């Protein structure tokens, strides 16, 4: 089996560029049940969001779920600039809206494995979507492995997609407590679980096994404890595989 091996430096990660080096390995990633990826699009300026934020805190404790909180910036005009928001997260949500045939974006919204969505506080609907995805195709096997002070991200081979899938590296803070002083949630302190701070494309997958070397010491900067890799088909497409690691363990 042919495996591509790619190594990153800090500057490369920040720029989202790739440095490829040739290598070979005789082992593949062991097949495992794919975790279900749950993405909450939320905002500190949205009065309907705290209930969904609390629900995501619960989902973040589940072993079979990768829960991620993406704060968007389009409610900033209401009087409070979201301290965790990024235009990149808003673009991600808009890509989902386009792929899923929605008329626009809204908060709070939860997207499950890139294929199902609902209001983030609609627990019954979200739980049904999670259960459906958990019982479906195992997807592409992915795993983080520690090796000599670095992290190896291994992606197993699979059916070649129509177009190469994007491999995203997501870094998040386990918890972020924010005291909101203005806007619809003024005087409230909201705790965000798995608050995404960085979303970086780090490679493309064409069906062949892939191995990426990531410097663990660099990934520990900014106090970000969590790291997730997502393999996604196209812009706003289905999540084909996912892996997670706690960098502090």
From TrEMBL:
By what name is this protein known? DUF1223 domain-containing protein
The stretch of residues making up the signal peptide is: 1-31
Q: Does the keyword DNA repair apply?
A: no
Spell out the InterPro entries in the cross-references: DUF1223, Thioredoxin-like_sf
Keyword check for Signal, yes or no. Answer: yes
PANTHER family in the cross-refs: LIPOPROTEIN LIPID ATTACHMENT SITE-LIKE PROTEIN, PUTATIVE (DUF1223)-RELATED, PTHR36057
| One Pfam assignment | DUF1223
Which keywords label this protein?
Answer: Signal
Q: Which organism is it from?
A: Parvibaculum lavamentivorans (strain DS-1 / DSM 13023 / NCIMB 13966)
